[in-house]
Amino acid sequence: MEKFNESLSFDRRMWREDVEGSVGYARALARARVITNDERDALIDGLGEVGKEWERGAFAAKAGDEDIHTANERRLTELIGDVAGKLHTGRSRNDQVATDTRMWLRGELLRIRAHLRTLIEIAVDRAEREVDVVMPGFTHLQSAQTVRWSHWLLSHAAAWQRDDQRLGDMIKRVNVMPLGSGALAGNPFGIDRQLLAKDLGFDGVCPNSMDAVSDRDYIAEASFWASMTATHLSRWSEDLIVYCSQQFGMVKCSDAYSTGSSLMPQKKNPDALELLRGKSGTQIGSLMAVLATIKGTPTTYNKDLQEVWHAMYYTVDNMSDSLQIAAGCLATLKIYPDAMERGLCAEMLATDLAEYLVRKGVPFRETHHISGAAVKLSEDRGVPLSSLTVDDLKPLCAAFDADVAEVWSYEKSAESRDTEGGTSRRSVLEQCAKLRAYLAAN
């Protein structure tokens, strides 16, 4: 039962937050005159020694150390004597663990957000540098229209920006303090929770003590955020896995982010991208585990809730690693503009052909059918769409003229999409500028 019940094997990661939270609580007890200033100082000095032991890896767990809280209090008692017993006055492990995890998660999410922003910055840097490279754009994995490589990069950066916005918004909800809620009913010793929250770096306090000790929304929300972000990384990875296949050959992962085959010497496998794609599945599974654990727990604290810490630690570790790997992979990725250009075909300009007629005054619904007839004509003749002459096209529509030859330019096709958010050079650079401004302002 001791083995089944203990959590020190994993919640020891929060030793720093447990010490810092206890230091803050000792000060709050002194302000409320529950303990003397001398007792406060003894507690703070003792907690400092406990922290130093953890820092240098010298803390020795003992039998009966059920979790990080009991372990630290036991060691504090060994160091300063019975006065250590006053630290827990009015405090429960219920509000203590909720406080520790919020403090720990707050710091980790800020670090993860920095990794996410680095990834966005790399995408923007490359988009600006490589803005003149054009490539095929796909729908249903079929060649569709001409786009810029940088536009493709920014399509994923736009999703990552939403991930960053969600993360920034979520951190505000993580950063509220449960401490002072006691086991469930509140603190009976007049603790100034607002001042304690300020001491511990919280933006405010949880408004209801019963909710505070049983609320694990912040873990579920962090797991959802991670699942959504991992899903975006997975889609980005899938694109690149396709693009770096021999059939496409448009990009290549650096040796640091790929491996060879154990059997086939010619292979260079995009392992980093495949692992990112795979880890999105386990991240989504982690979210399901959190929700399934929480859904059946009655108000207030129940030991089931201990299980969600596994998901919290996995989420932090997985997303920290994944975002750094994604950033490294993107920063070192090699592109092959010639292969991207070879992937373009005249049939991808069929929509441009229809738009040419629109500019001549023909309704789009008609031009769509006319362009389709031109595609069929080229297929029947076994020639590229661009090889059809004005004389070939005139029977389809009298509006065709010699200037139709200008349609057969991939660069011009991309440049024609010059609205906000489009794939023209100006628009792509505008998107880069907007992303840079967002990163600077948030």
TrEMBL record:
One of its GO terms (molecular function) is argininosuccinate lyase activity. Belongs to the lyase 1 family. Argininosuccinate lyase subfamily. Residues 348-414 form the Argininosuccinate lyase C-terminal domain. GO terms for biological process: L-arginine biosynthetic process via ornithine. This is Argininosuccinate lyase. The lineage of its organism: Eukaryota, Viridiplantae, Chlorophyta, Mamiellophyceae, Mamiellales. It comes from Ostreococcus lucimarinus (strain CCE9901). Residues 1-282 form the Fumarate lyase N-terminal domain. NCBIfam families: argH (TIGR00838). It comes from the Eukaryota. It holds the Pfam family Lyase_1. InterPro entries: Arg_succ_lyase_C (IPR029419), Argininosuccinate_lyase (IPR009049), Fumarase/histidase_N (IPR024083), Fumarate_lyase_CS (IPR020557), Fumarate_lyase_fam (IPR000362), Fumarate_lyase_N (IPR022761), L-Aspartase-like (IPR008948). HAMAP family: Arg_succ_lyase. GO terms for cellular component: cytosol.
